[in-house]
Amino acid sequence: MVMPLPIPFHNSVELVDKIVNERAGGMNAAYFDGIRQEWSGRVAAYLQHQGSPEHIPQWDAIPAARRTSFLNLYLAPTEGSAQGKMLADLRSHKLTICPGCGELGRPNTLDHYLPKGKYPHFCVTPANLFPMCDACQRAKLEKTGTAHEPRFFLHPYFDVFIAEQVISVEIQPPYASPTFVMTLSDQLTAGQRAVITSHLRELFIEQRFAHYFKSESLRTLKLVQTLRESGLPIAAMLHAFEMRSRMPALNAWEHIYWTAVTKNDAMMDFLENGELPDFL
């Protein structure tokens, strides 16, 4: 339900210089030139601490009137500007699932890992931006963490351990109308487990996955009924679905579901030999 991404090829620190240089002679030239060094340093600190809000303070010295100057770099980039080209590149991705939750579908917006409302100086930092679905972004909003849980969310550029399957579901009977329990890999460290737990909770992923699970379970029963009527090998076909679902990510909803089906011997026996419900 989470997916790692390669960090953008745009250099986050060098982009600051490009933005400041493009404003030479403009109405905001003196302001941006005056903060060039500190802005670059804060971006470098972001990279050093991998975006963790626990270690990256807000820039309280930015006057309220200047926050708009930063935000406009993202909201209204000048055509041909350095940040405009970067944003266009990030939006032209070919993802088919949301890297925040793993749901199938092209994520059609960019999320700021550290939200631009609290961290306007990172609003066009490439390492702070990645595609995300609308449902995840509505759930995430301006949240970052608390004193008890300093970091709520996984970072797709830096949390490389999510390349492995770290989230699973255990399907429970009755298999004609199954339920599930979500589990985390026992190979995770305590810190990794903590951030995955908060990530799932804050983005309401388990509740959202439940709707998918119910629909996919019904589709599976209908598929099995068709396979039985056609005399096709049920186990081989379902394993083929599991193999296909491994791409593009092991924590995508499809792969988590089909792995749970094919590894559940009791469910596989039911699908091959059990009495299917009458409502199919």
Provide structural commentary.
A hairpin with a 6-residue loop joins strand 3 (167-172) and strand 4 (179-184). The model has no long low-confidence stretch (mean pLDDT 95). It is built from 10 helices and 4 strands; from the N terminus they run ααααββαββααααα. The chain has helices at residues 12-22, 29-48, 64-75, 82-91, 134-140, 190-202, 205-230, 234-244, 253-262, 265-273; strands at residues 109-112, 129-132, 167-172, 179-184. Helix 1 packs antiparallel against helix 2 (29-48). Helices cover 46% and strands 7% of the residues. The strands form 2 sheets. Strands 1-2 form a two-stranded antiparallel sheet. Strands 3-4 form a two-stranded antiparallel ribbon. The protein folds into 2 domains: 12-140, no CATH class; 164-273, no CATH class. It is mainly alpha-helical and 280 residues long.
